[in-house]
Design brief:
- It is a single chain.
- The chain is of the alpha/beta class.
- It has one domain: Alpha-Beta Barrel (TIM Barrel), CATH 3.20.20.
- Helix content is 41%, strand content 16%.
- The protein is built from eleven helices and ten strands.
- The strands form two sheets. Strands 1-2-3-4-5-8-9-10 form an eight-stranded parallel barrel, surrounded by seven helices. Strands 6-7 form a two-stranded antiparallel ribbon.
- A hairpin with a 2-residue loop joins strand 6 and strand 7.
- Helix 3 runs parallel beside helix 5 and helix 6 runs parallel beside helix 7.
- The two termini are 32 Å apart.
Length: 285
């Protein structure tokens, strides 16, 4: 029986804290680092970034789109990156935001979480907006394989507000997603682990009250793991980590991406160490 995703997260938290670094090799970052914007540049950027992060953080989050833009050559780099990161002991979250129905969702699950998957990852981000129930094939496979899913709940993009803040059955769509994921987490945890298979993606820059998820305990989501992008360059401060998420802050993976390179590509280790210390102070760790 594979080790549970919950246990992997708990070990990463205990050893390195709750900070995660996104590996987002978009054209601007490559240019700033003096690296060519091609597949080989992706490899150079990603592997050197991994070198600097090793021993500092325990979780990395490659953004699939920035590899996919180079087709098969980009995916080959992503495969190697995920495999290498896993061998080094990182917990790897693939930020792919996959979501579909029936056999297509099953195929996505096999592609990213299956035993023969070319991508060695521990978790995948998924979209519930074809119905949370449509994610069942991925949830079942993730639970079986000791993997995790992070379900989009409240995202920081302006276009998401109309759907996610819409009222359904007296509560927002986002709050309904949170409650459904909490229920799935409880089922997959079966009282044996701290977290279940499914967690939430909640942008750190959103106003939680506007999305009806300011009281996550009320939505039944108090034990769901939260992946929170938006810290650093996107505007949220790690110093405000507990103020943003309250009692749920201890269940949050706090993610930075571009800000890890704010002092230059050769200073990532120092910059991320400073961020890690700031977060620990905010959480009282």
């Amino acid at each position: 029986m594979p080790e549970s995703f919950s246990r992997k997260v708990e070990l990463a938290f205990d050893k390195f804290g709750q900070l995660c670094v996104g590996i987002d090799p978009h054209a601007e970052l490559l240019e700033e680092a003096g690296i060519p914007d091609n597949a080989e540049g992706l490899r150079t950027f990603s592997m050197q970034l991994l070198d600097q992060l090793e021993g500092v953080v325990g979780i990395v989050k490659p953004q699939v789109a920035f590899f996919e833009r180079f087709g098969s050559a980009g995916f080959a780099v992503l495969e190697d990156l995920c495999s290498d990161a896993s061998k080094r002991g990182f917990l790897v979250i693939a930020d792919g935001k996959r979501g579909d129905i029936g056999s297509t969702m099953s195929a996505y699950a096999e592609a990213w979480l299956g035993k023969a998957s070319p991508f060695v990852v521990d978790a995948l981000t998924v979209s519930p907006y074809l119905g949370t129930g449509a994610l069942s094939p991925a949830i079942a496979l993730a639970s079986e394989r000791g993997k995790g899913l992070f379900v989009l709940c409240a995202t920081s993009n302006a276009e998401g507000k109309e759907l996610q803040q819409a009222i359904r059955g007296g509560t927002t769509v986002a709050a309904n997603v949170a409650a459904e994921v909490a229920s799935l987490s409880k089922i997959t945890a079966q009282g044996k682990t701290k977290f279940g298979t499914a967690g939430l993606v909640i942008g750190a820059t959103v106003n939680l009250k506007d999305y009806g998820i300011d009281d996550l305990n009320r939505s039944g989501n108090c034990k769901s793991l939260i992946l929170a992008p938006g810290f650093g360059a996107q505007g949220a401060s790690l110093a405000a980590a507990r103020a943003i998420f309250g009692s749920n802050a201890d269940n949050v993976i706090f993610t930075i991406s571009r800000s890890a390179l704010r002092n230059g590509f050769d200073q990532v280790r120092q910059s991320v160490t400073a961020d890690k210390n700031e977060l620990a102070l905010a959480l009282g760790a």
